[in-house]
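Q: Here's a chain of 332 amino acids. Please give me its 3D structure as tokens.
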Amino acid sequence: MNSFGHSFRITVFGESHGPVVGVTVDGMPAGIPLCEQDFDADLARRRSDASAGTTPRREPDRPEIVSGLYNGHTDGTPLTLLFRNTTTKPQDYAPLARHPRPSHADLAAARKYGGFNHPGGGGMFSGRMTVALVAAATAAKKLLPGVLFSTTITEIGGIQDPARFDALLTELRTAGDSAGGVVEVRAQGVAAGTGEPFFDSVESLAAHLLFSIPGVKGVEFGAGFGAARSRGSRNNDPIIDRRGTTATNNDGGLNGGIANGNEIVLRVAFKPAPSIALPQETFDFERDRPAPLTIAGRHDACIALRGAVVAEAALACALADLTLRAGNAVTG
């Protein structure tokens, strides 16, 4: 449900326009140096900037560590972090109970929870919840000191030239529209042998977390769907030395679901943000017919912009879980 992991187990809680969003990390070894400043860099990568095409809502996102820490080190008990929501506007979402937004979880959540769901900003179905995953990944990366992550946005709205991204985002903001995007995450230094066969493969666990990110609609590893259009003679990765280095990396650093020592490569497809300023014709339950809907609130022109660090966080958490299972994690 709201928890994930075996040896590195994370539980998220809160709502987009509730008082707090938070995460509890269970399984963090004792003795790992950790402080609130350790979270700054990745939280800054997720923070909004309206001029860059992300939501005008700007939360301070200062983590409050309320358990699991003693004298600047983890103490072996569950690590819990809180993020206060300081700029909530739940009134913007009141009409959505009768007139749910298209391509949002408004209607699905209301039916699942009998109308008792928190509607503000989508509640727990909001991208706001990803601050918890990014925070958990800060702890996860402490267990992966030899792993280097590199994350880039490779496509926005079908455009693959980064030099054209700003112009497209300006166009989207002016039009009140949004666009999807593709994020590529790379991880170097993952120990060969990381991962478990079948259900707990690196792909299985990483994809599970990646698809938990609001707006993610596709995940591929290595050549991904391109491999389906290739041939074995072209897609195979020849091994060129005793370390297992491969001449190509179409498998994305994974064989049989287990890391082979080469760079792990994955890509994540984000759909266009469904909250747009343009009027949309969608069903109004009070009128009992489709009617125009204009969505108020503060929203992203492209959720991949802030989703990039979240995708990286998902891979980090999956790798931390598998590393702890194997007994290879750094401990205090």
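Q: Can you summarize the key feature?
A: The helical segments are 40-46, 106-112, 130-142, 165-175, 202-210, 232-235, 304-326.
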